[in-house]
Amino acid sequence: MSKRKKRNSFHFLKRKFSKIMQKKLVLLFSLVVLAFAILIGRIIQINAMNGEKYTKVVLDQQQYDSRVIPFRRGDIVDRNGTKLATSERVYNVILDVKAMLEKDEYQEPTIKVLKDCFGIAEKDVEELVESSPESRYNILLKGVDYNTAKEFEAIDEDEEKHPNVKGIWLEEDYVRKYPYNSLASDVIGFSNADDVGTIGLEASYNAILNGVDGREYGYLEEGALLERTIKEAENGNTIVSTIDAELQKIVEKHILEFNETYKDNAEKGNGSLNTAVIIADPQSGEILAQASYPNFDLNKPRDISAYYTEKELKKMKEEEKVEILNNLWRDFCVSDSYEPGSTAKPFTVAAGLETGKIRGNEVYTCGGSLVVAEDTEPINCHYTAGHGTQTIAQSIANSCNVAMMEMIKVIGAEDFYRYQSIFGFGAQTGIDLPGEAEGILQDPELVGPVDLATNSFGQNFNVTMEQMVAGMSALINGGNYYEPHVVKQIQDENGNVIETKESVLKKRVISEQTSTMLKQYMKTVMEGTGTGASAAVEGYDIGGKTGTAEKYPRNSGKHLLSFIGYAPQDDPEVLIYVVIDEPNTESQEDSSLVLNLARSIMEEAFPYMNISTIDGQPVVAPEQPDEPEEDQQEVEPQVENETETESQEEVSGEPSYEGEAVGDGSYEGESYDDGVYGDGTYEDGSGDMESGY
Fold first, then answer.
1. In this structure, how many other beta carbons lie within 10 angstroms of the beta carbon of residue 252?
2. CATH number, domain 245-320+339-487+498-651
3. How far apart (Å, rounded) are the C-alpha atoms in residues 643 and 622?
4. Whole-Å CA distances, 596 to 188, 343, 420
5. What pLDDT, on the 0 to 100 scale, is given for residue 560?
6. What is the pLDDT at residue 484?
7. pLDDT, position 477
8. Domain boundaries, the chain
9. Low-confidence spans in the chain with pLDDT less than 70
10. Engineered SS bond to 692: which of 47, 160, 341, 427, CB 3.0-4.6 Å?
11. CATH of span 87-175
12. Phi and psi (nearest 5°) for 178?
């Protein structure tokens, strides 16, 4: 009998899987690996995006102690170190409900302390106990001040008198404060409760002002701390602005006085639609003061009760309030554009001198109006009786529209619009504030003779205040166009300088010779019967230009008044630009309004700034009339006097240039940035319009 071969119990291991089975196993294995990969990825994602949230949940369920260590948002200070925005330490009241409910005798005294010390209602605590009896972290109150915190600390440490007060603890936090309330509100801006800047420097430098929260972790066992890990917060950096707080106070004081004087004058409302002032260093682009009215309290930015009665506020819809706030928070100096009026005339003359098409010895005849093309209506000068014979100096001093229109014929559209771009119109200046407008320029390919003519004296194109300040600074400082800026330095929390914001020279727009001639012309504005003479300040050699722009729709009676000036004449140390948009007066074109405001500011600001005075030759300011000046159109034609003749002799004759100008805003051996033209269009193309002076 043959032996039966013993069967291997592991024979199935030798069995080969079919190809189909192999593929299925590979697929299954791949799916398992993929599932694990997805799971791991999801865990990583949750940890990255919501780690702190889930950590808080876990800590709430276990005997863990965990708290956020908030960063301190950096300060905003003026150029002298005065705090304009700062973060003050406050405390949040936290209740550990589970700890309070550990014993029955804990609840009543704990709730009593919450009420007596922090003013937290018993009802609110009882509702929290009922809804979340196991909760460990509940913010009952935010922003408790230091004194109140110290009062609670004394109670918490007094085990003899308050042995049963349990579950209350204070969490450190910070609240944003603005020591000067509304001072420089548009420039500084404000941040919300989440440390996000909304407008102004708070917005444009938000990332620099903010820091990084820290964290403290610990494990508690029956009240005993076993281990604690601390990650310290990284505080934000300090912004050192170019603003001078004292100078800012001077500016805002006089703006407010103007508003109070003309409030509810011609109609119910503020003294103007907008009143704004910029004071700048023309040699660097630094903004020393910048203000507009209406303004707002930075500590209560949503409070509009200063401008509306309680009755009016109750009737308002939320949409109306939002619109009002948006307008209130809008920085007029940066975000609004308007027709500049006659303050643009020096730029027209500069374009002519730089191209060589105007030599400085030209004489024009003003008959009160000018027909610039066939089949068009005459375009009026502001003085419709006519200024008569006008040199360039006189045309600037008297703000003659006809002379400007005669100049633009010679300059031509191509060069004029090219130089508008070179002077920075139609493009953002690059100022380090949010919401900057570009203004509106005519399209040189579409412009007609009427638009070209009116552009020469500041109508039918729009500028911003920042553009005018930057451009005029270049005209008077020898031709250097600096980028305007409001920040000087960035410092760490200990005052160490991290970064210095150097002045940025963007381009050279005119020659020193042209700059010198323009200053001579603008000096005549402040002398004799010049349109700006009433703004002269005794002891200071001032140059400047006035402007009165008739707003759309034409003949509506709405005007924008302006004055731009500088001192001293030879080497300007300061530039001031004042704008009053739709003054609340019966006659909005009364230039004395803006001249008086400008003079009042300069009289106080210049001594404070230690601006150079005339050496032993104080300028005698013209006697001011008791009543506002009448419309300039009613003034008699200017008659040359001895002073004016001297001025004319100084500026007449052909200029002598040391270098060769190439006529495009650049000079041999140098390159310059040109701006971009806009494509603004206007409804009114007629020539029946007047400009201010």
1. 22
2. 3.40.710.10
3. 14
4. 28, 17, 30
5. 97
6. 98
7. 97
8. 87-175, 245-320+339-487+498-651
9. 1-17, 43-66, 218-227, 616-693
10. 341
11. 3.90.1310.10
12. -125, 100
